[in-house]
Amino acid sequence: MAIDYGWQNRTLIGFHSKDSNTFGVVQKEYPILTKESEALFLLTRDQFFTISTPQISNVLTNYLRYQKFYDNLRLIANVLLVPGLVIAFGYLLRQFGLFDEIDIVKDFLSSGISDALFGLSIFSVFLLWHDYYKDKSHPVRLPKAEKISLNDLEEIKATGFKFGRYAHLEAINYLNDFSLDIICANTNKNEINIYNLFLELVSYPQIQEIFKRANIQVDGEKLTEAAIDTENLPTYPSTSIRSLIIYSLNEALLTLSRDIKPEHMVLALFNVFPSLKKFLTTQNSSIDILREVVRYHSYEFEKRANTNPFNPNVQYYRKGGIAESWIYGHIFILEKFSKNLNEYVARYDDIFGIGHEDEIENLVSVLGKVSNKNALLIGEPGVGKSSLILGIAQRINRGDVPLQIKDKRILQLDINGLIAFSSKEKNTETLVARAAQELENAGDVILYIDEMQELIPSKAQDSGHSLAGILLPYILDSKFPIIGTVNHSDYKRYFYSIESLRQTFTNIEVSEISAADTLVILQTKIVQLERNFGIYITLPALISTVELAQRYVKEKKLPSSAVQLLESACSWAQSSGVQTLTDEHIAKVLSNQKGFSIAGVKAEESTKLMKLEEAIKERVVGQDDAVFAIVESLRRAHTDIRNPNKPIGAFLFMGPTGVGKTYLAKVVAQEYFDKESDMIRVDMSEYQEVSSIEKFLGDSGNRSINSQNAVSLIDKVKLNPYTVILFDEIEKAHPQILDLFLQIFDEGRLTSNLGEVVDFTNSIIVCTSNIGSRILLESLSNNKSTWDEAKDRALIELRQSIRPELLNRFDKVLVFHPHDIDNLSEISELLLQELAKRLSEKSINLTWNSLIPQLIASKANEPGFGARPIKRYIQENIEGNIAKEMVEGEIVAGEEIEIKESWII
Amino acid sequence: MEQKNILTSSGGQKVLNEDGVDNLLVVFTYAIKDFLYWWYVKMPLWHLRMLARISTLVDDNLSISLLFKNFFLPWHRDFSFIGYTFGILIKVIYLPIAIIGYLFCNVMYLFLILVWLLLPPATLFFILRSILNI
């Protein structure tokens, strides 16, 4: 599941040729235009950026000269400061009469020379101040590139754009001094040396820091290995600088920077030159990762810059001031069992409520209403309901909220604190009434009640407290805003049936945030986590955290799942002495937590998958088609090509008994998931009645002790989602139970009777059926019918028995071939090898000649029963004889025994 | 949205050109123009924005406009005779002090702007007078 970083459709780069008067859009390849008559331009939703050749020649001709002039001016001003300071010190001492006796100093300080020098040094302070502060007082700020609508994009691509609709800006004005310096320094005789430019850029400390955060190594050795040289990064005429600046501007806009910095030039080079793009790929990285790192740096920079209230370039929000509390009421009682969230968030640097902008907007509009200003946030645990409230508290602290909730404080009611406090009071009713009166009088309180179902009488009864009955009427009739939170199942259970509650609250659905927003949340935690755990966190580690949490931690929602995974990984890194946290470490920590090897963890995982087909074939005889189909789906899962919202694979195995259907499932569980014993096996003949649907989905309602102890399929999959689930003989199950499979196969999840959602997306689902077995067996003995014809007839029989919508949802229906005598010999050989392995643990070496397996196969073969008779035959005739001889003491440890033909005959 | 114009004027036209730049006088003139433009056009406007910011900050921190808006609201919302009387009394005492503080900050900053404007000519005058006195 790739993260949508949101780069798309924010900018559009186009080119224009004066010669042919043509216009085009730059799409996949990024051309470097050298002809003066050709030019690139960049469009955002509202702006139009251009750069001209005279501007470039102007920069190249004049910029360094002016820099040199200012360098000299700075030097002179600094030199003039020294005598100025000495003279100022002298003036001071003269006031105390220290130089009354020293005539020469006294005369000098009274002379016009010292005054002139002093005046000049004061003037030099003005010059230095101008030099230092001019960019700070009036910083360059690129506009925010808002998304261009798809309609506009299509229109621009088809017919061009309306010039007058956009603000025309000059790209050259957004280049910062570092970028200008580098461009000028690497341009000689009207040619720009891209290779040297690249080398100089990557040597900058801030660029090195970006590479470090992106977990990319860029040094001479690596560049030589990747054949990055002057051939790949050639020298261009200086007119090409226009293209470079437009591409750098594009990167600056996408990474929300104020101006075009050297890091944007590096991004542009990586994006434009295929050899550099390839270099990123060899480092397991991409332009997206690099860009995201630069965006993170811009974000950190902006965060620092936005905190100074004395900066008139930053918006200021009113906070209320020292006398704010005078106009609001006291809450002496309520303070004892509530928490002030405004004060709580003020202590943290974290940014709350990321990704919930729409919900916050809805909530603010509900809270600002004149009547019925109560909101109920409904969402699954971990989606960020509490964070959303903290986000509002943070915005109130900043003042960045509409007038309706300006200067409000959010108090979180501590229900347990209230219960404890009320136990000390004689009259609970009076206590609650006084608290409610305080709330009403206060005028600036928004009451927040987490897990609001605790105040519903039916739930409160379960929890064993009687406050709900007292508190609820005040809530229903509140004159102050209330925000409550509840999850879906509790809402359905406790709120849905109470009409008055539903009328009192406006429901706001809080959905899971996107992967990109989760990534932003994790980025906000980097500084704090690095400080706490003493490690360095790379961006690929964060990306991996989000992707893996989204894919494998289905029992929790984003961002909670990702935050917890990252914190676990940081803790693990600290205890393991890991200094730099990378994506591999995240996968490793998750693998440890899940007890399952996550794709991409180790190289040997890929090697194992490459050999999986051979490994399975070594153990499963005569079913090559089925093995191939299963391995193919596992490979897809490993390379992340598969649909992440479906099970890894869903297969239907058909065939007579004993052909290896169950065995293949077991072998896959062992070879892929490393746990044969954990395969979940469900005998569908137990679900023949419609009433058994409850058993299948786990008991709801009247939970007897027996039903609570019974482990349903749901429970098993919840405990162990990384496994093979085998549904044996599905044709025997009731059709309504088979309908549940549609949800499993389509969406990779199943909702239990208790409303829990169980994830099947990490499971391989195998169903077996004996339908058509008779036809398949007959084909072996009947010369008239070929195998293919029999298979077709069996499949027709299958279609008549199982509904097509279910059959269509299987990835593959595999017909297992009945075993012929050669297969049975091979199976005999395998079973003997297994026996030999067991005996070798007792230091007994079992041998047999090549005829023995064939002999067993011919003796044990019972047409229509497959390999099972072979197993029984070996048990009875070989294992039995060996056991007998061991008991009689004829075989002892360390001996070698050979299977005798007499045992078989 | 701010754009800088290191080499072009606000109209996007070239201030400098290849021929002119060899002459140190052109560079010097440009530097003086740049300095004067910053000191007497850009910075005074910046100072006025700063004055507005300081005015807002002081008003907000001393809760002046907030108290004016809620002048008749009783002390801590105690809707009794004592609450009303005490609330108004406190505000009547507090607000003049806060307003004096507010005006003082604003006047001081206005004075600072004046000093800012006078500093370069005053310094030049001081230098010239000193040279003449040598």
Question: How would you summarize the topology of this molecule?
Answer:
The complex is a heterodimer of chains A (905) and B (134).
Chain A: E1 12-17, E2 22-25, E3 38-43, E4 47-50, H1 53-95, H2 103-110, H3 112-137, H4 150-159, E5 167-170, H5 177-185, E6 187-188, E7 191-193, H6 194-203, H7 205-213, H8 220-225, E8 235-237, H9 241-254, H10 262-272, H11 274-282, H12 287-305, E9 338-340, H13 341-346, H14 357-367, E10 374-378, H15 385-398, E11 409-413, H16 415-424, H17 428-442, E12 445-449, H18 457-463, H19 467-476, E13 482-486, H20 488-495, H21 499-504, E14 505-509, H22 515-533, E15 536-537, H23 539-552, H24 560-576, E16 580-581, H25 583-594, H26 603-610, H27 612-619, H28 624-638, E17 649-654, H29 661-673, E18 680-683, H30 693-697, H31 705-709, H32 713-719, E19 724-728, H33 735-747, E20 749-751, E21 757-759, E22 764-769, H34 773-781, H35 787-801, H36 804-807, E23 812-815, H37 821-840, E24 845-847, H38 851-860, H39 868-888, E25 896-898, H40 901-904
Parallel strand pairs in A: 4-5, 10-13, 10-14, 11-12, 12-13, 15-16, 17-22, 17-23, 18-19, 19-22, 24-25
Antiparallel strand pairs in A: 1-2, 1-3, 3-4, 6-7, 7-8, 9-11, 20-21
Helix pairs in contact in A: 1-3, 1-5, 9-10, 10-11, 10-12, 17-19, 22-23, 22-24, 23-24, 23-25, 24-25, 27-28, 27-29, 34-35, 37-38, 37-39, 38-39
Chain B: H1 24-61, H2 64-69, H3 81-133
Structure description:
The complex is a heterodimer of chains A (905) and B (134). Chain A has 905 residues and is α/β, with parallel strands linked by helices. Chain A has 40 helices and 25 strands. In chain A, the strands form 7 sheets. In chain A, strands 9-11-12-13-10-14 form a 6-stranded mixed sheet, sandwiched between helices. In chain A, a hairpin with a 2-residue loop joins strand 6 and strand 7. In chain A, helix 27 packs antiparallel against helix 29 and helix 34 runs antiparallel to helix 35. The longest helix of chain A is centred in the N-terminal third of the chain and has 43 residues. About 1% of the residues of chain A have low confidence. Chain B is mainly α. Chain B has a domain of 89 residues. In chain B, 72% of the residues lie in helices and 0% in strands. Chain B is elongated and about 80 Å long. The chains are: A alpha/beta (905), B mainly alpha (134).
